[in-house]
C-alpha cells in the first residue's frame, strides 16, 4: 500500500505543480486581458464586447508563449502545428464562453457600467479557465509516453540509455 500511496502522492505533487504553473501564466494573462480591455474600453468607442474580444485575443497569444515555454515545456514538442491548431480551437471556445458571459450581462440584462463589465468579464474568464485547463492538458500539451520522456531526458543530459531499444516491445 505504501508504494501505491507514494505513486499517488507523486501524481498529486506533479498535478499541483502543473496547476501552480498554469495559474502563474494564467494570472499574468488575466492581467494582460483586463489591462487591454480597460485600455481599449476607455480610450476608444468600441462596444464593450468587441473590446473584450480584442483583449482576449491578445491574452491568448501571450498565454500560448507562457504555456509552451513555461508550464508545459516538458511536454511533447514534435507536433507543433497540431498543438497550435488545437490551442487556437480550444482558446476560441474559451473566448466564446468568456465573452458570452459578458455579452449576456451587457445586452441581456443591461449591466454595462465599468464595474459591472469588469465583474462579468472576470467571471467569464474564470469559467473559461476551467475549460481551458482541462482542454489544454488533455488535448493540446500532451504528456510524452514514459519511455520517450526518459530518452528525451537522457539525450538532453548526454547520457546513453540504460536499456537498449528493442523492437516489438
TrEMBL record:
It comes from the Bacteria. This is GtrA family protein. It comes from Streptomyces achmelvichensis. The lineage of its organism: Bacteria, Bacillati, Actinomycetota, Actinomycetes, Kitasatosporales.
Amino acid at each position: 500500500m505504501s508504494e501505491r500511496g507514494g505513486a499517488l502522492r507523486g501524481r498529486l505533487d506533479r498535478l499541483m505543480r502543473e496547476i501552480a504553473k498554469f495559474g502563474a501564466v494564467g494570472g499574468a494573462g488575466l492581467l494582460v486581458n483586463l489591462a487591454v480591455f480597460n485600455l481599449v474600453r476607455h480610450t476608444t468607442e468600441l462596444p464593450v464586447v468587441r473590446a473584450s474580444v480584442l483583449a482576449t485575443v491578445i491574452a491568448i497569444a501571450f498565454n500560448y508563449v507562457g504555456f509552451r515555454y513555461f508550464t508545459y515545456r516538458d511536454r511533447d514538442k514534435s507536433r507543433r502545428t497540431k498543438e497550435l491548431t488545437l490551442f487556437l480551437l480550444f482558446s476560441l471556445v474559451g473566448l466564446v464562453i468568456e465573452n458570452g458571459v459578458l455579452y449576456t450581462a451587457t445586452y441581456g440584462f443591461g449591466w454595462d457600467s465599468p464595474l459591472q463589465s469588469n465583474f462579468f468579464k472576470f467571471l467569464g474568464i474564470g469559467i473559461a479557465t476551467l475549460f481551458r485547463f482541462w482542454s489544454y492538458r488533455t488535448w493540446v500539451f500532451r504528456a510524452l509516453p514514459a519511455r520517450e520522456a526518459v530518452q528525451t531526458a537522457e539525450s538532453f543530459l548526454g547520457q546513453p540509455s540504460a536499456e537498449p531499444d528493442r523492437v516489438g516491445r
